[in-house]
Specification:
Layout: E1 16-18, E2 25-27, E3 35-41, H1 47-65, E4 70-75, H2 80-89, E5 96-97, E6 107-115, E7 136-140, E8 143-145, H3 153-164, E9 172-174, H4 176-196, H5 206-217, H6 222-234, H7 240-254
Parallel strand pairs: 3-4, 3-6, 4-5, 6-7, 8-9
Antiparallel strand pairs: 1-2
Helix pairs in contact: 3-4, 4-7, 5-6, 6-7
Protein name: Cysteinyl-tRNA synthetase
Organism: Streptomyces dioscori
Length: about 270
């Protein structure tokens, strides 16, 4: 997947997101780099609501990596205390409670993240229409977590990975086996990163950095970011020190604490 814009690996990222109201890709970063408001609309503290908030969290991370100042807002939530507790366990950074619907001081862009529904939301525009003053709308497909899936602090990071591993537009149902797979993957990656950290450091290869950028700039394609990491792990040409830098860089977006086990000794 080629990166948009200049080919230089350190060029300014241009994040583009599909506006759910039009189906068209829209630049998520305002041209004048003004304040961007990311609004997570969560109706209930269920699996779908958690997926919406996680998508908003990753969107905020992508914007901040690109140097965009962000103001985060949480709206429309029943059971807000329960949602916030579950969000903290998944490493989702706090969103402010909604104060009013007016624009913030110096606000240049509004990105609204919400669950996908069959009915058009208020202010929706027909296919092909302009996004208009309402900003950009990001929709997330429903999710369900089987009751047997543990949702304690120990399994929270694995749950975050399992939720991120599927495209946000696909409906998702997680069971205990999915969580075990994610736990094993996360343990393996953290152990590998800890081992790579003991090797001489090396820069991220330009093609790898471009592939990571191309993935998250293209509609915030997190599964593609994870795919790049898998390729880097098995590459015969990327040195261990560069592997470490690649995983640490990607984790600024993923929020999986991939460097957590550095200095803790050899993995079990």
């Amino acid at each position: 997947m080629p990166a948009r814009g200049p080919s230089h690996a350190y060029a300014q990222p241009v994040l583009r997101i599909t506006d759910a109201r039009t189906g068209d890709p829209v630049t998520a970063t305002p041209a004048r780099r003004g304040l961007t408001r990311v609004e997570a609309r969560v109706e209930r503290p269920d699996a779908t609501g958690l997926r919406v908030l996680l998508t908003a969290d990753v969107l905020v991370r992508a914007l901040e990596i690109g140097g965009t100042p962000v103001w985060t807002v949480l709206t429309g939530t029943e059971g807000r205390a329960e949602l916030r507790a579950r969000a903290r366990s998944l490493g989702i950074r706090p969103f402010e409670d909604e104060r009013d619907s007016g624009p913030g001081l110096g606000e240049a862009q509004v990105l609204s993240v919400r669950a996908r529904t069959d009915e058009p939301a208020d202010g929706a525009t027909p296919a092909g229409g302009a996004a208009g003053a309402g900003g950009l709308r990001v929709e997330v497909a429903p999710a369900d977590i089987e009751p047997a899936v543990a949702q304690d602090d120990e399994s929270a990071a694995a749950l975050r990975l399992a939720l991120l591993a599927r495209p946000r537009g696909e409906e998702l149902r997680l069971d205990a086996a999915d969580l075990i797979d994610a736990e094993n993957q996360l343990k393996h990656w953290r152990g590998a990163v800890a081992a790579w950290a003991t090797r001489p450091s090396g820069p991220i290869p330009d093609p790898v950095r471009e592939q990571l950028r191309a993935a998250w700039e293209d509609d915030l394609d997190v599964p593609a970011v994870l795919g790049v990491l898998r390729k880097v792990e098995t590459s015969g040409t990327v040195p261990d020190g560069a592997r470490f830098e690649t995983y640490a860089y990607a984790d600024r977006l993923l929020g999986l604490e991939l460097t957590r086990d550095i200095g803790r000794g050899a993995p079990a």
